[in-house]
Amino acid sequence: MFFRAGLRQLDQLLRGEATRTDVLKTGDLAVQSRQLFVINIVLGMVAGFCLGWFALVNKQLEGIWQVASCMLKVPALFLLTFIITLPSLSVFNALFQSRLGFSGVVKLLLATLAIINALIASLGPIIAFFALTTESYGFMVLFTVFVFGVSGIFGMYFLLKTLRQMTILLDELAQPAPLVDSLSGDPIEVVEPDNPKSVKKLYQTWNQQNGKNSALLEQHRGERVRAIFSVWLFLFTVVGMQMAWILRPFLGNPNEPFMWFRPRTGNFFQAVFQTIQGLLGMHS
Amino acid sequence: MMSLTWSWVDQLLRHSATPELKLPWIKLLVCQGLAGFLYGMVMGSYGQWDANRFWYVFYAGIKVPLLFWVTFSLCVPVFFVMHALSGLHADFRQSLLALLAAQAILTLVLLALAPITSLWYLSNDHYPWAVLFNGMMFAIASLAAQFYLRRLYAPLFEKHARHRTLLTIWLGLYLFVAIQFAWVLRPFVGEPNSPAEFFRSESWGNAYVALFHLLSGAAK
Question: Among A54, A270, B151, B173, which is 20 to 30 Å from B124 by CA?
Answer without folding.
Answer: A54
